[in-house]
Each structure stands twice: as C-alpha cells, then as structure tokens.
C-alpha cells in the first residue's frame, strides 16, 4: 500500500551518519518547513529512531499523511528493515526502520537507501523511461541504478552499492565492508586522503587539505586524487557497457573538489566505453541540497508503507 492521499503534504527525512535533515514537502515539491539535528550515531539504533521521530515532529503540519525516510545502509523497502550497514551508526544492521519510526510517530512510513532516494530526483516523473547510473562519492561510495525509469532495489535492497565492486586500483586495500580490493577503498574521500600519505605525502586531516595541496602542485596529492577518480571512471564505464544507461551522474563531496578530479574521471570513463556509447559523459547532479529530503518525501507515493506496531508489540 502506498500513500492514499497523493495531494497531502509528506515529511521527508534524510538520515546520515552525522545529521538528520527533515522537511515538510507539499505535493508540488515545495518545502514548507525544515529542521536539522545531529544523528546520535554512537548511541544505538533506538536513539536514532527517537531522533528521527523528533525531527519528524518538528516539521509536521496539518494534513500530513506519511513519512518517507532515506537512510544510510542497505535498506529493504519491502520489509522496512536495515539489512546491512557499516559501523557509522552503531547497531544499525537489523533495525526495523519502517515499523519503528511509524510506531513512534503514528504515521505510515516508507523507507529506502539515501543515495537511491536522491537519485530518483534525477528522473522526470513517472513518464520518464530513462536508464540512469548514479554514483555518490563522499565518505563512502554509494550508488543507484534505474531501468526504464524505475529505481532498481534488488534482493534485500542491495542494488546500486557501487562502492563494493572490485577495482584493480584498490587491490589488497581493506574495504569498510570487510572485504579487500573494492572501489570504496581507493575512491572515497578518506581513502584518497589515506592514499596520499601512502604515496609519501604529508598526512592530511581531510580531503579538502589534499585538494589544496594538489592545486599547489603537490605530486602526491595529485596522484592520489587522480587515482581515485580514474578508478571511479573505470568502474562506471564498465557498468555503462553492461547497463546501457541514458544518463550517468556523479554526486557527492569528492567530485566537488574540482577539475582535476573530473578530468581524470571522464577520461577513464570514456576509455572504457564501447562504440555505441561514446557520446555518453558523466555529469554532476542537477538537484541541489534538498535532493535527499525531496527524494525521501516521494517514497510514500511509490513504495510500501509500514504501519505502527500493535500496542505491546516490539517496534
């Protein structure tokens, strides 16, 4: 069952490892109210659900009929469960996100992965039959895939986790998922920062420091950034050959460091493409800072709704 009143306002929640963004969104996509609060990531799943409920109450308005939540981790929208997650949010794996939040707010809840929700805003409504390949490169590497205008979820909601594809550039490097040699281990912001030091550069506190050094001509910083960009471009180019998307979008904080990154990524992407796709080029997202909450607010109109648990039942 999806939202029974498509013209009513919906609450969109974007849950990340550091903050929760909430918005009350009208049927026309207008943001009517906003709220942000820190994510109590080290306090466990129950504290995070409580914080999500508090954020929803802060923006709730008359006539609000549902909540959509876009959350970090592998989210199964059918069961409303977090099927897998890193330790960014302690104890997040196995959380009954849909039912737990519905029980706390009294509103039905639809839920999905945060990157997939943001990626959906790149599609032009229900009549858009586009194939989309979407990568989000930041603290980690996430992604989403749409075929014929429909976001793919896959078994247990795992479709689109591009950061855990094998990457030759990451050979032997440990990944956050526990395996080795995955794209995230060389292409995410912390991975680029760490690789700069491995190459002999001065240790840096964050990616922006590495980017500043590269802009000043530091060869170690330049090499680390271009390696991460090339690895991402190669993976996306190979996926483009397999999936045949009409659009490729690369979002997140890492691409925002500038032309050095984009030039290396696009060159590596183009080098992988088969002839029919050689006009395809990755581009930045067209949505702004509201993409995730707007995508979350759209979820109750397309995904199953989870209802509050019966009185006395565990949430």
UniProtKB/TrEMBL annotation:
InterPro entries linked to this entry: ATPase_NBD, ROK, ROK_cs
Domain of life: Bacteria
Record-linked Pfam families: ROK
Family the UniProt entry places it in: Belongs to the ROK (NagC/XylR) family.
Entry protein name: ROK family protein
Organism of this sequence: Streptomyces ardesiacus
Classification lineage: Bacteria, Bacillati, Actinomycetota, Actinomycetes, Kitasatosporales
